[in-house]
Each structure stands twice: as structure tokens, then as C-alpha cells.
Amino acid sequence: MGSLGFWRLAQADPGWVAAVDPDGTRHTAGALLARANRVVHGLRALGLRPGDGLCGLVPNGTDGLVLYLAALQAGWYYTPVNWHLTGPEIAYILADSEARAFFAHERYAAEAARAADAVPPDRRFAFGAVPGFRPVAELTEGMPDGPPDGRTAGATMHYTSGTTGRPKGVRRPLSGLDPDDAAELMTFLLAIFGVTPGRPNVHLVTSPSYHTAVTQFGGTALQMGHTLVYMDRWDAEDMLRLCAEHRVTNSHLVPTHFKRLLSLPEETRHKYDLSSLRWMIHAAAPCPVPVKRAMLDWWGDCVYEYYAATEGGGTIATPQDWRAHPGTVGRPWPISEVLVVDDDGEPVPPGTPGTVYMKMAGQRFEYKGDPAKTAAGRLRDHFTVGDIGYLDEEGFLYLCDRKADMIISGGTNIYPAEIENELMVHPKVADVAVFGVPDEEWGEQIKAVVQPAAGCAPCPELAAELLASLEGRLARMKWPRTVDFIDEMPREPNGKLLKRRLRDPYWEGHDRAI
């Protein structure tokens, strides 16, 4: 192991600008290192030990980055929490992850305070003012800014939803490696795309840092010595401006970003110098072929695609691959395998759709506290997230359909069972089904189909009442956009919902059922 890893790089060159906050504030590597070290010393004084967890409900920027860097050198699990969640949803993650410390930003004070009881008062820390939380300064004041003893690699533990509706933490065994050595191993991810280490590389963080891929790609770029430039809220022209101003070389995007960028006026699109772009990587949702082609025509051969899961493994499509195989999500990474099988777990011939299974060399994971769910997605040493696809003769993967229940809206995975469970408790609902329907901008929008309780007439007022009942119980991004009513829900005699029968009419005339 040699020259990569943030902590090594920061000690060698403390003056390097490692991150730029959304307000334009620049942070040197030395300053970030000192902050992360003080957090480690402070939390160790509270009794945190390797294997413990901490959660951060913080916006994009260096506050979250410092927590990440602290955890990754102290052997802790760091869980960035989705800031769209409500208090009860946050409290569930705090309890399930067994968080020994909870950091919240004042922007999310209301929901953080609602969740606070899941963590003892002396272990709640606020960036800014949050009722019932201590200022972060109380944790770090007087703590040394030098490296802690006994440094050991930690990990992130992101929460990914399951069809049962409750999110699960994807937890990997800790490696026991030196943090910089572990970080250097992480850099294989960007190396697969040909990304080079060191300056003058700049990585633009365009999406919320609680997403696995955003943490992975941004964190890995930093470990390679790139400068991170954070966006607070994504805006198409603002992104182009930042790319030109900071000479951005790489980023991680979703197809919704492409749609918004392409809808800018021609004059705006060509106002900014984008000649620095080299690796603009996208995933998280299927990208329509015309949209991808238009981005390649505009930005040139710097648009890379991949397919992967929080659980590990994946494929990559270089610009050249995609031009030769339009619509593909690529071939397996060098350390990954892809298997497409029928319902009996037997491999299917090229061109035949089946369930997509993956594995990644040397990577094991479990869904924390759910051995049954961990086992259910396994086929020997491969796993699946339930996607349907096929391989062509050359081994390129194409996705036909996501697992029938999952909705992908704006690159975010949304699981209907959680929404159905909340609507089902309403006294005026006899039965309910939630699924995705086509949306030009977001890929999918959430549709609820409701069978009203006896004596309740279907009407716009009932739809509004049902949606209003979700207030404070479900994040707004999970609320159905529209509610339709049905006399009787189509179910098999055994009670299984025939969701495809409900869903298919909405997808007629669309070239892929995603």
C-alpha cells in the first residue's frame, strides 16, 4: 500500500483544498483532518469502541464529511440519514443501527427532536441549535487535533428498503486494516472507470450524501486526492456553472439530472466551458436511450454508466460500449460476476430475461438483524435485489424491469409496502395497492389504488383525506402523487395481490416497464 488515503494525503499536504461547501467556503485537508481527529477523541471519551455506530442527519457539506472521516479511521459504522424522513422513521434507524451517537443539523431540527429519544441526551450533538442536543463544540472542545491511537478502518452502513417496507442496514464485517490502506483498496471503484488520482481532479457532489453511491463515489474521489465540491440543492444551470468555475473532472449523476440539463435553453447549455469533464458517471435508474444519446452528443465520450446495488457488485458501460450496445448497463466489473437465472435458479441463455444475481470478490454483507432477508436474496454466493434483465451474446447486461414492487423516482428507490401499510390503517380504506406509473421527468411517480371501505364513496375529497393522513408519518417523497379508486382489488384466492394487473394498463405504449 502506498500513497492514497485521505489521512496520508492530508498529512503530506495539509494545505490542499479538499472540500468546498455549498456556500463556497473552502476547507483544507489539514483543517478537515484536525476536525475529524477531535471528533474521534471526543466520542472515544464517551466510550465509543470499534464496531459501534453513529448516525448523521446533516445536509451536503463538510459537517457530514467530518463524521465520515472520523468513523472510517476509528472502526465505527457511519450511517448518513435521509433528511426527508419523519421523526418516527429516523428513530427507527437510530434504534435499529444501535447508534451510540447522533449528530443533527439545525436545518432538520424539528424531525431530529422528534427522533431524539432513541439516543441518550449526552450522545446527541447539533450543528447549530437543535432542542435537546448539545453543540458539537462541547464534544470536540479541548480535544487534541492529532491522530488518535489504535486507528482501524470503519465502514458506512447505509439503509436500503426491502419489500417488507422497513429499511435494513447493509452491514459488512470490518476489515481490521489501517484506514489509509482500506481507503486505497476502495479506490478500485473509480479506477474501473479510468479515473486517475491526484490533482487537478475535482469531484462535484450533485445528489444527497445519504445515498450509498454518492457517499462511495465522493468519498473515494477524496481518498484519491480529488477536491470535493458540494451542491446543496441540485439545479441544472448551477451545476454547469460549478463545473466551469471549479474545472470539475468527475461526478455522479442520475438520469433525471440529464433530462433537466437537456431541457435548458440551447444558449444556456453552451454558455459554460465544460472542457474539463472526463468521467461523468450515472446510475440509479434506467436512462432512456434518446436521453443518453443526447448527453453523449453534448458532453462527448465522458458519460459512463453502471448498474450496482448497495449490497455490492456491478457492471460498467463505457461510452464506447454504450454506443455499440445502446441501452446496455454494461459488463461486470473485473471483480464482479453477473448471473441471470430462471425461477429454478438455473442460468438462462443469452437474450432470455431472468432474475439478475451478482457477487463481488471478497465482499460479504448482511442485512442487519434480518438473517431471513439476507438468506432470501442469495443463490449460493450470489445475491439479487430482484431485478429482471438479460445478457447478450457478448455478456452485456440489459435491464427489462425492476422488481415489480419497487418504484424508482428521480433516482431514489421507494418501496410501496411501507406506503400501503400506512394507508391501510385508515378507517375508510378496505384495500390498497401502491406502484409506479410513468413520469416523463422523474422516471416514475407513485400511484395509489384504493378500494374504499363499505359506505365510503370514492371522491377527490376522500383522496385528499387519505394523503393528509400521511403527514408526519411518511416522508413527502413517499406520498402517492395520485389516488385512483377501484370497486374490488384483484387478488388470488390465497390473498396474493395481482399488482401487475393493476399496473400494466398505465404502462401501455411505453417501451419498457420500469
From TrEMBL:
SUPFAM superfamilies: Acetyl-CoA synthetase-like. It comes from Sphaerisporangium rufum. Residues 418-496 form the AMP-binding enzyme C-terminal domain. This is Acyl-CoA synthetase. InterPro entries: AMP-bd_C (IPR025110), AMP-bd_C_sf (IPR045851), AMP-binding_CS (IPR020845), AMP-dep_synth/lig_dom (IPR000873), ANL_N_sf (IPR042099), ATP-dep_AMP-bd_enzyme (IPR050237). Residues 7-359 form the AMP-dependent synthetase/ligase domain. GO terms for molecular function: acid-thiol ligase activity.
